[in-house]
Amino acid sequence: MKKVYLFAATQFEILPTLQHLEENFSKKSFFEYSKNGLSIFPVVTGIGSMLTALALSRTNKISEADMIVNAGVAGSFNKALNIGTVVEVVEDRFADLGVEEVDGQFTDVFEMDLMNKDQFPFENGILKNEGMTNHQRVSGITVNKVHGTQESIAKITKKYSPEIETMEGAAFFYTAKIMDIKALQLRAISNFVEPRNKENWDLEKAIKYLNEALIAILH
């Protein structure tokens, strides 16, 4: 029996998939759905790096998983990624772990020599993951405070050249690599990273396409 653990920060991001599991899979327990030799375990972690890492580390028998999946929405720095586009994150990094200098610039813990940028599981401060789907592969940053001013967006873009931004991705990859578990991070673009204006967001569209892709992958 293949085991896949599905992690999401919030329930509404994967609600269509949960409904699909309820309708098309056998429910073996509150946390397990089974069909055709595949068991799927959905877990809602809560928002942010700390809750994500804690949820993964406390998930029962996660070490037995054949794969773990992190699914959710994301903001895009890349204007070529249309709202609703589903992407696979193959590079991620913690983009707010460090200090703010007196001139307002950000210095991360690797530049401060507080952490070795090439110590496992990092490669030059980046968490890299093998691509596994046909979805466009992107680089991401993970933050506890999403960017919402032109000044902060310009600074982080210049520093890391990210394509998307999430609040959980790097924590998911870090924990998976430490535990030596095969991992997949799938995101759908809900908004562009710009001076904050939620009227330009389309969560409904992003969630629709995210879950269509997710259900196809699970099958």
How do the helices and strands line up, and which of them pair or pack?
Layout: E1 2-8, H1 15-24, E2 26-29, E3 32-35, E4 38-44, H2 49-58, E5 67-76, E6 86-92, E7 98-100, E8 106-108, E9 127-128, E10 136-142, H3 150-160, E11 164-166, H4 169-179, E12 183-192, H5 203-218
Helix pairs in contact: 1-5, 2-4
Structure description:
The relative contact order is 0.23. Helix 1 packs parallel to helix 5 (203-218) and helix 2 runs parallel beside helix 4. The two termini are 14 Å apart. The longest helix has 16 residues, at 203-218. The chain is of the alpha/beta class. It has helices spanning 15-24, 49-58, 150-160, 169-179, 203-218, and strands at residues 2-8, 26-29, 32-35, 38-44, 67-76, 86-92, 98-100, 106-108, 127-128, 136-142, 164-166, 183-192. The mean pLDDT is 96. Helix content is 26%, strand content 31%. The strands form two sheets. Strands 5-11-10-6-12 form a five-stranded mixed barrel. It is globular, with a radius of gyration of 17 Å. It has a single domain (2-218), classed as Rossmann fold (3-Layer(aba) Sandwich).
